[in-house]
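Homework-ish question, so no full write-ups if that breaks the rules, but can someone show me the predicted structure for this set?
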Amino acid sequence: MLSSSSVNEGIVRQEKTNDFCITFCTVNGSGSSTANTTLLRAIFKMGVPVSGKNIFPSNIQGLPTWYSIRVNKKGYIGRLEKDDIVVAMNPATLVKDIDYLVPGGVLIYPDDIEIEINRDDIVIYKMPVKKLTRTPEIPANLRSLIANMVYVGVVSELFGIELEKIYLALDYHFKHKKQAIDMNFNVVKNAANWAKQNIEKKDPYWIAPMDATKDYIMADGNTAAALGSIYGGVQFAAWYPITPASSLAESLNEYLPVLRKPDFEGENNYVVVQAEDELAAIGMAIGAGWAGLRSMTSTSGPGLSLMAEYLGLGYFAEVPVVVWDVQRVGPSTGLPTRTSQGDITFANFISHGDTQYVILIPGSVHECFEFGWKAFDIAERLQTPVIVLSDLDLGMNQWMTPKFKYPDKPMDRGKILWENDLEDILNRYNGEWGRYLDIDGDGIPYRTVPGNVHPRSAYFARGTGHDEYARYNEDQDVWERNMNRIGKKFETAKQYLPLPVIENRSGSSIGIIGFGSSDPAIEEARDILAAEGIQSDYLRIRAIPFIDEIGEFIARHDKNFVVEGNRDGQMKQLLTLQYPGLACKLNQVSHTDGLAISAEWIVRQILSREIISDDD
Amino acid sequence: MTIDMSVSAQKQNVNSIGLTRSDYRGAASTLCQGCGHNSIANQIIAAAYELSLSPEKVVKFSGIGCSSKSPTYFLTRSFAFNGLHGRMPSLALGACFGDISLKGLGVSGDGDTASIGLGQFKHMVRRNLPFVYIVENNGVYGLTKGQFSATAQQGLYLKKQGTNPYTPVDICMEALIANATFVARSFAGDPKQVKELIKAAFRHKGIAVLDIISPCVTFNNHEESVHSYAWGKDHEWPLHEVSFVPEKEEINIDDFEEGTVREVELHDGSLVLLRKLDRDYDPTDRWEGIKMLEEAHKNNWLVTGLIYVEPDAPTMFDHYCLPDKPLNRMTEQELRPAPDTIDQLNALMW
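A: Not a homework solution, just the prediction itself:
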């Protein structure tokens, strides 16, 4: 056989259809993302549940990058720790990449890489990449970019991905530009043809069409967040470039002109500003929120650190604003291109003095869309900053997700007073109105905004002590009364926040508490644990402040495992503060290595703790 | 007839929109007696009254420091936001988009603008946000009791601080380098000039930077200080005599000697009249402004007046093609895409 070497004959090769992980090991900036997303999209179009995760360096060109596609007929879309198939395009990492292969796995690599393979328990296929791209119709300067299309063709042929679906994916990627599509597709076709004629398939992996993706779309969380914000009526966004949040604001720029068609030609009712830094981005967003606009910013950890002081002002002056924090690994610059759930306590306590924030935590791409519009309703209703905690895994990777749903509620602009509303209030309350006067007893006062020309509407907003009428005040009683009234808003808040998602199973002995992008891994872990005889209940936190159901869930289980992507168990810390009497029922299951949490890791953690407790 | 009208208006003490001077006042000042900032607050009141600005159409902003407390002391009927130290520009920028028919007025200090806020200041300037940016510049941190600011002159001696070894930041120079479209310097001890420049600044289409030397009577008013009353009075060198003329007022050119007055027409048709004093100066030539500031620095002059103006430069608002209806009055119908778009959107995804 020309291009495949033999595999240890002792391995039993049972067919594995629609249940494996394939990782493409390439060099950053080599054009591999086009190839990888093309394969991902083609598999999705075959109706097979699929997910893709990009592990990339903080670099433009030259450092190694990996892209893993998981195909799973049961719909599990969390990360797998081992690879069934490795496509090794990068000689620099090939030896290490092979280590990740399961026994019986497949290694595919270009035939010009000369290397000693030290495993005899895998199937190996070599591809003549150079030969297949050195054709006259491919310009020399594009050859290295288009080389990745060779593995698209070989992989398609070997594992059964329909070329017609590959064509559709290329058509989508290149926005119907025929020349680009054809140049790439010809390489794919030729490579598939070559594989058909030259490779004898010795591996068990197959992709077969299903009908399991019909009600789904593929999208990333940052795009979804931007789109949700547009359906929430975003009018002002200020931002500063930062990985992994940049594509959120860039999506606003891409989709606002499409979705927000104004009545008058050429006029826009939105403003997106690229600020000089995050200090300014949050300042602009808070200024706009104060002036009555639906206002937002998007950033990641280092940017959130810079926003701390202004968020305290937003809290104290009671300004609605939405801040998306697409978390990456900190502290400091950390791992800028790796994922984390490490900003939980910082977001909760951000800024000096007594502060509180409403925090929303989407667990999927379609929740990014949903919380995109809901965040504005909540911020304006409560007149306070809302921080939405996404992460790099959710924000930048393509996920299979239920289709976006149109908002099921009209906008809630909160207690805002225009000229006539203010006149009504003044009539109703004997001319009494104060910007910070709690008329309704829910802690939320009524606000006016600049442009209201009623002579009583203006007030002086400030971060210094003020009374109910927004007048400067240093009196101790006034200060404390105001702070307590603001605190009350966070009790009122609970009725407006997304509820936790609770899934109980009969006979369950443990509780699992999770949040955010680890949701698919936790769901899968529960199934694996159940097969091991451990049934679990699951609560997914979607908002802070915590509501009573969360405490009740913890109380119901002797053992609750709080699964999170950080070193210190930050969510567990917050739960411990909220429910000190239940602290002994909380177990920290956290780690931070920059990769998405896997089901296997959760299972190992819980099993090891369960065994220890059985011994006690 | 015209004379009668103005006399009767004077008798009633109302301006052309029927407001009295007290409609423009603020709370009583809590700054020190004799502080230059109080004098500037009074000129803001006078300018707004004389321009017949509707107080509801002005929004005040400030950062942190003595200067930033002063927006309390004028225009009580205007909305205001006292933000963070050095970060008033970003706050104001966001807020100004709420309703672009409003005029933003920021009051800052030398610590606020030339130290912590230098970045935000210059970026606001380079964006040409329509905004009046007044710096009450006294060369010293008053509220924290007398430390050097970044505009303090080199060699200045202050009790407790010793001698300042560093060169000062020139706010007008920074504004010019950042392509400001209106740059002026004045002296709180010259109230008429302050008032006329504020009026012109209000009517300027883009960013108007006014650096007003405003002596700190408590911490930095000894005679050798370039931010003192005495030094300012001795060293002030007005480039010209400034008067502002609203667009509808007739000018009687006979009042002036031929060739001694230069008119600068602002975007709305109003005029700034600059009566020549002892030198020719062209305030529409940026390079001349930079040269003049350099010369003033070398010779220890406090040059005052309109240093640079570019009346018609596009503003930040122009780049966004905004409708006449204020953004903050937009309704759900205008802001939320229609229900039928959601299917198209899902089809746009993969």
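Now go work out the reasoning yourself. Hint: Chain B has a mean pLDDT of 91.
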